[in-house]
Structures are given as C-alpha cells and as structure tokens.
C-alpha cells in the first residue's frame, strides 16, 4: 500500500471524524500500534486520510519485554519504514508482569510521555466497538458505577495539550480484521490474546460469543449504545454535582453541611460524598465507604464512621460532616 486508497471504510471513518469532531485538521497525531489488527487498521486508515486532513502522523509502540513479543518491535519498525512514517519506540526497563491492569498503566504512561515530548496534539488508539462491549461487561461484573460502564469513550483530555481519541469505536473487531485481510496488512498474531488467564480474554473468547449465540447476535451494538446513553447522563450528573457541591460545602471548615445535603436526592448525595472523600483521602473511595458517610447526613452530633483509611474517620460535628484523624 504505497499510495493512498479509498474504500467504504475510509469514507465511514472520514464522516465519523467530521460528525463527532474527534480530531482537528492540521494536527500532530501519534497512533499507538500494538501490531494487532485493530491498531494496524487504524494506522492505515489515518495515513490514507492524511492528505484530506493535513495531519502530521507518527506511530508509537511500547515494548513490555514479554517473551512471546520477541521481534514485534522490529516488525512494527519495518511497517513504518515501508509506509514512510516516523516511528517511536518505548521499552520497559525490565519485563513487566503479565497482568492486564499493570501492563495497561505502563503502556499509557509511555505513550503519553512520547506524545508530550514530541508535541503531539492527539494520541489515537485502536479500540473498537467490541472492546467497548467487553469493557462494559467487565466493569459491570466488578460492580462499577456509571463511570466504569462508560469508561471507554471517544475522547479523553489527558492534559492541556494532549487528547486521547478512539476513532474506531463504531467498528467491530470483525470489520478491522476484514480490512487488514483485504489490504494485506502484516498483522502480528498476539498469543496473549488467547490466554484465558486474563479476564478480558475470557469475556472476548467465551462470554460474548455465548451471549451472541444464545441471547442476542447484536449484543456488542446494543451494549455500546447503552454506553453512549449513559455517557450523556454522566455528563449531566457531573455538571449538576459540581453546582450542588458548592451549595453544601463549607470552604472554611472543609466540611459538608448536613441540612443542605438533606434537600438533595440520594444519587447526588452519593456523588457529592464521593467527591468530598476523594478530596480528603486522595484516593477513590469504595461503595461501602461512601454509604457510611451518606448515613451521617441524618445522624446525631459526634456520630462517626469506622476507619476510612489508616487513621481517618468521618464525623458529624455541629451539623456538618468532616474528616478527622481517629
């Protein structure tokens, strides 16, 4: 594929980028490429659309130093050389443990560092509709709230100058595979994607095919539509929570006013309490901790929770809830 081509997939992504205003013209774009079909599909589509958008594009890869990835970095470097695109490689100083969450953390940190160092405006990843459905199920089973169910979104601001974008969230994994096959892209078969010790792999390999066969062939589409609806709800809830927080928060005492909280519905009480705990504990509270503090709204003076973290408790004092050392 030495020159730009055009297909229904190109037209589809081109329209989606315009309709959702995902990536601005004349931007500097860094595309994260793992070597798999999704990221290769994204990279090739964006390179073919480059002239229409006046983008400056580069590709980046993070090497986890896993044994079965031996040769992968060189494989991607050759693709970039063949395609005439700049390539940035970040390598772990030592082998990262084969854990989903830990690997993802190091990978994103490395990619963001590259994007920041070389002044890219956008970091693009090849997450698809299939990934979004899997994330929805995964977080639902972990008991996540609306934030978790909408975690995989189209755009996320990383900092003032960098935005993370997932342009393929309307494409399925089957469609990216068909694109790679059609244009003979050199996909690297990741053996880790077949490891059932990873929860997300079991969802992808076992659970979703079962749900598609036994319940709903369009399960991925419907789950992602639900995520879109919830995302709009979440935007409103966050805006309203910010407004209400100012009404109930006592800046002088760093406390919440119980009388004002009583006027607010339970869903906003929980959100305000969560934000208050994050502010004071410097970590995300769990459901039980939030509920324990919500109960204090109707409790008498000097009522307190059990320990929140280490020696911290929440206590009612003079009709206000505050955080103090136990």
From TrEMBL:
It comes from the Bacteria. HAMAP family: tRNA_Ile_lys_synt (MF_01161). The N-terminal region contains the highly conserved SGGXDS motif, predicted to be a P-loop motif involved in ATP binding. SUPFAM superfamilies: Adenine nucleotide alpha hydrolases-like, MesJ substrate recognition domain-like. Residues 29-204 form the tRNA(Ile)-lysidine/2-thiocytidine synthase N-terminal domain. GO terms for biological process: tRNA modification. It catalyses: cytidine(34) in tRNA(Ile2) + L-lysine + ATP = lysidine(34) in tRNA(Ile2) + AMP + diphosphate + H(+). It is found in: Cytoplasm. Belongs to the tRNA(Ile)-lysidine synthase family. It is an enzyme of class 6 (ligase). One of its GO terms (molecular function) is ATP binding. This is tRNA(Ile)-lysidine synthase. It comes from Cyanobacterium aponinum (strain PCC 10605). Ligates lysine onto the cytidine present at position 34 of the AUA codon-specific tRNA(Ile) that contains the anticodon CAU, in an ATP-dependent manner. Cytidine is converted to lysidine, thus changing the amino acid specificity of the tRNA from methionine to isoleucine.
């Amino acid at each position: 594929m030495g020159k730009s081509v055009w297909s229904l997939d190109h037209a589809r992504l081109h329209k989606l980028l315009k309709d959702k205003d995902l990536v601005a013209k004349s931007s500097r774009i860094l595309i994260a490429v793992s070597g798999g079909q999704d990221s290769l599909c994204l990279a090739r589509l964006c390179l073919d659309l480059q002239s229409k958008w006046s983008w400056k594009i580069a590709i980046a890869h993070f090497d986890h130093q896993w044994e079965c990835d031996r040769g992968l970095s060189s494989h991607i470097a050759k693709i970039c050389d063949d395609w005439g695109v700049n390539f940035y490689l970040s390598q772990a100083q030592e082998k990262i443990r084969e854990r989903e969450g830990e690997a993802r953390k190091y990978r994103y940190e490395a990619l963001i560092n590259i994007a920041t160092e070389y002044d890219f405006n956008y970091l693009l990843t090849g997450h698809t509709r299939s990934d979004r459905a899997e994330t929805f199920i995964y977080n639902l089973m972990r008991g996540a709230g609306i934030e978790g169910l909408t975690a995989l979104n189209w755009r996320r601001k990383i900092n003032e100058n960098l935005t993370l974008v997932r342009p393929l969230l309307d494409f399925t994994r089957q469609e990216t595979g068909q694109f790679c096959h059609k244009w003979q892209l050199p996909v690297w078969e990741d053996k880790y994607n077949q490891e059932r010790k990873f929860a997300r792999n079991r969802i992808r390999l076992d659970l979703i095919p079962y749900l598609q066969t036994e319940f709903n062939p369009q399960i991925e589409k419907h789950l992602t539509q639900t995520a879109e609806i919830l995302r709009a709800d979440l935007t409103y809830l966050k805006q309203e929570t910010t407004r209400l927080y100012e009404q109930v928060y006592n800046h002088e005492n760093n406390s919440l006013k119980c009388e004002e909280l009583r006027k607010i519905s339970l869903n906003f009480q929980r959100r305000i309490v969560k934000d208050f705990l994050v502010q004071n504990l410097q970590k995300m509270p769990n459901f039980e901790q939030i509920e324990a503090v919500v109960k204090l709204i109707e409790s008498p003076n000097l009522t307190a929770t059990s320990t929140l973290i280490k020696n911290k408790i929440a206590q009612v004092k003079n009709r206000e809830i505050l955080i103090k050392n136990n």
